[in-house]
Amino acid sequence: MTVPVLSAKGVSIEYRTTPVVRAVRDVSLTLHRGEILGLAGESGCGKTTFAYGLTRLLKSPAVLTSGEVLFHDRVGGDVDVAALDGEALRAFRWDKVSMVFQGAMNSLNPVITVRAQIDDVLTTHRPGMSRAERAGRAAELLGLVGVDPARLDSYAHQLSGGMRQRVMIAMALALNPQVMIMDEPTTALDVVVQRGILREIMRLREQFGFAVVFITHDLPLLLEISDRIAVMLEGEIVELDTAENIYERPQHAYTRRLLESFPSLVGERGGFVRSGAAAGESGTGHAPGSDADAGPGAAPADSADSAADTTIEGTA
Amino acid sequence: MGTLEVRNLVKEFRLGHGLRRSRLRAVDDVSFTLEAGKTVALVGESGSGKSTVARTLARLETPTSGEIMLDGRSVSGSRSALRAYRHDVQMVFQDPFASLNPFHTVAHHLERPLQLHGVARGRDAVAEHTRALLERVSLTPAEVYAAKRPHEMSGGQRQRVAIARALAPGARFLVADEPVSMLDVSIRLGVLNLLARLQREENLGVLYITHDLATARHFSDEILVMYRGEVVERGPSDQVILDPQHDYTKTLLAAAPDPARHGRLRDEVRAELAGERA
Amino acid sequence: MAENRILPRRSAKLVAGLVITLGIVVFAVVAPFLVQDPRFSGNDALLPPSADHLLGTTKLGYDVLAQLAHGARGSLVVGLAAAAIAIVLSLIFGIFAGYAGGWTDEILTMVTNIMLVIPGLPLVMVIAVYMQSRSLWLVAFILGITGWAGSAVVLRSQARSLRSRDYVEASQVAGERTVRILLVEILPNLLPLLAAQFLFAVVFAILGEAGLSFIGLGPNGSITWGTMITDAYGGNAMSAGAWWWFVPPGLLIAVFGAGLSLVNFSIDEVVNPKLRVVAEATGRRRATEASAPAAVPASPAEPKTEVTV
């Protein structure tokens, strides 16, 4: 279980803009074979940039400035991902490491059928396969992710959000990769649909033994599925531990703050403020300072949520 | 004590044109009462009709049938009645990046409702009220924030401005449509706590619309679970969450991630697979 | 930091466009006072450029520079007047229709569509033919009332999308009146688009006027770049090799059009968020919002808000 499959050492990524933005700072991380590693953090913490760095998907002006990424192939030796280019890089992606992105609608080609898209992946990477073999594999893949193979001839817009994401997972599975990188694959979906897809991912992981880097801001979700969780803040991994330890014994203040942001559904209230008359009448009131908002000390803390996205200009 | 009551609310949308016209019943016979000083959570997935209820309460949609009653009186559609209604019932939108006009300053967003509802007259009084509103939502120093434009602020700050705008007319009831779902996780609680504090201090009635069961439970007195336009379960929040009766509520609860149940899904799947192999 | 998104960013494109456009405008305003009477025919005919006549003379002995200066004035007047008329009409048929919706929208849109499918130039010709004496203003009017449909369509779709923006609905909830919502909440956000449409209409009208003049339906008794080209053509300037006669007006029309287009491109980068992101990513540091590779702000002070303990 503790055989490494992908390791990053001292990875730094910058956006070469003015001024330079250091999106990922000296991050080292080892992904073990078959594990689910959660990468938690908020928008702008560099988690997606880091994932792009792992797969050499960075686009200008993002540049990997230092560090190395090694892929430890199941057969054969180590591959220096940073040194790959051209054909070797193409083969590496999908074949060894595949990706599932947020927003399947944008990742699926709207003008060709699901079958044609899966076919495309197979013809590119498995030129030896016959037409019949490819058709069989496409149907098999959809079956694996719980989509009726009759859907092969559908276009993206004919599928529900959940089905689209399942199709994306099927495509990522197509070449039996050793690592799958999933960036917020279920964020836009309703919880029930999300649950179904997560369950599918977990089952497939057990069946095929690939490792998963699962990126999301949804810490409770990560806690339920991950073996280990890395918490990212300002381009650095501030804490990396098993899911259990992250929940029971968080070390870093930021991890604790993230955890506190998600009150437990069925557990105790903890410090979460209960509003309304009922709480007021009960006489317990609120512990002093429990509603940090109310205290005079709130102001500085308050204004701190400023800097984070002041630079983001109007959103469309 | 005031009440905002919804009686047998039905909202249908017409779809398509000509012969292929059909109707979609987005809200089907929903009734509930919002009391001053209480929070009611309306929980459901996308498409459940919860946002339509919010929009109807904000009078952005007219109900197909059913009544909205403020303090026991039915609200007519006349312009003056509508204005009086909006004086009391206001809405906080989901997306603070979209609900503030990029062209205008924060001050503009607050001054207009103050003037429209005659809360303050005269330049000085309006400025004073604007400052007070910003302080109430903890955006200090108020002068600095009043001069800002939306794109100069973070999501959390924008949502605070949106809350201040809703309070400006002197509203007694607040319809908050997923007020934190577009915000970064670590600032969500801050905004929810702000709403809770305002509600306590000003005895507001809040309709909290959300898909997040955990905050619904902790933030509200009562929970209504909506599914396909209907309220399938309702009750005190702890009861609905800890002892759900309806199958849909149970499904929702089972699907919601809970930090306290770490490793659950992983272990469940392993157990399942082990069971299949055996 | 207080950047106003309404104003285009300063870029090479914008500067070049503004220099060209303003240069020609200044030329049209100032030069007519400095040159001789454009109708003074006492000069020798068809003189090539010289110190006396910087751009030579025409077959009738008119000074080309003088004609060009007065022609610039004429062409700009036609362009601006026609564009003003067109933009007002497109505001009514576009924004009002888009915001009002329902029957108002149906009717206004139908009119717009009719105007859109009728070929422009033939319609202008038919109207122009009926007018025996055509002043500069009349030509501008004709071009204005026939040239608004395209931008009305653009504005309508934009207004429709703005109408359902949360901030418009928020002002409805606040109790704002429709007229005020249109003027105060919606219109300012359409300014860049309106400016672009206006500039486009100016170019369109100047070209339209040149076209009308060329087929003999231009303004009578006025000088524009269009009438200059027509005169040059009628006076066999091409076969006489009198390039100084027909090149300058043609060149100015082209350069002016190019200048306004450059300004328009810069405005486009403001209007069109996708172009804006590209401009930002290449030119300046800007976090690209949540879209894919999440960039980190320069001082990535992560939000540290109050959390209840």
TrEMBL record, chain A:
GO cellular component: plasma membrane
Subcellular location: Cell membrane
PROSITE patterns given in the database record: ABC_TRANSPORTER_1 (PS00211), ABC_TRANSPORTER_2 (PS50893)
Compositionally skewed regions (Low complexity) per UniProt: 287-309
Xref: Pfam families: ABC_tran, oligo_HPY
Chief site of localization: membrane
CDD domains: ABC_NikE_OppD_transporters (cd03257)
The entry's keywords: ATP-binding, Cell inner membrane, Cell membrane, Membrane, Nucleotide-binding, Translocase, Transport
An example molecular function term from Gene Ontology annotations: ATP binding
Positions of the UniProt region annotated as Disordered: 276-316
Membrane topology: Peripheral membrane protein
A GO BP entry: peptide transport
Boundaries of every ABC transporter domain copy: 8-259
PANTHER family for the chain: ATPASE AAA-TYPE CORE DOMAIN-CONTAINING PROTEIN, OLIGOPEPTIDE TRANSPORT ATP-BINDING PROTEIN APPD
Family listed: Belongs to the ABC transporter superfamily.
Name of this protein: ABC transporter domain-containing protein
Organism: Promicromonospora soli
UniProtKB/TrEMBL annotation, chain B:
InterPro entries the record matches: AAA+_ATPase, ABC_transp_ATP-bind, ABC_transporter-like_ATP-bd, ABC_transporter-like_CS, P-loop_NTPase
GO MF annotation list: ATP binding; ATP hydrolysis activity
One GO BP annotation of this record: transmembrane transport
Gene3D superfamilies in the record: P-loop containing nucleotide triphosphate hydrolases
Residue span(s) of domain ABC transporter: 4-253
Keyword hit for Nucleotide-binding: yes
Protein name: Dipeptide/oligopeptide/nickel ABC transporter ATP-binding protein
Alphabetized UniProt keyword annotations: ATP-binding, Nucleotide-binding, Transport
PANTHER family the UniProt entry points to: ABC TRANSPORTER, ATP-BINDING PROTEIN, TRANSPORT ATP-BINDING PROTEIN
Keyword Transport attached: yes
Organism encoding this protein: Promicromonospora soli
UniProtKB/TrEMBL annotation, chain C:
Official protein name in the record: ABC transporter permease
Source taxonomy: Bacteria, Bacillati, Actinomycetota, Actinomycetes, Micrococcales
Location in the cell: Cell membrane
Matching InterPro entries: BP-dependent_transpt_permease, MetI-like, MetI-like_sf
Stretches assigned to the ABC transmembrane type-1 domain: 72-264
One CC-aspect GO term: plasma membrane
Keyword Transcription: no
Transmembrane domains' residue ranges: 12-35, 76-100, 107-130, 136-155, 190-215, 243-267
Cell membrane keyword on record: yes
Chief location: membrane
One Pfam entry name: BPD_transp_1
Compositional bias segments (type: Low complexity): 289-302
Top-level taxon of the source organism: Bacteria
Recorded GO MF terms: dipeptide transmembrane transporter activity
Alphabetical UniProt keywords: Cell membrane, Membrane, Transmembrane, Transmembrane helix, Transport
Coiled coil (UniProt feature): none
Location of the region described as Disordered in the Swiss-Prot/TrEMBL record: 289-309
PROSITE patterns the record matches: ABC_TM1
Family to which this protein belongs: Belongs to the binding-protein-dependent transport system permease family.
Membrane topology (UniProt): Multi-pass membrane protein
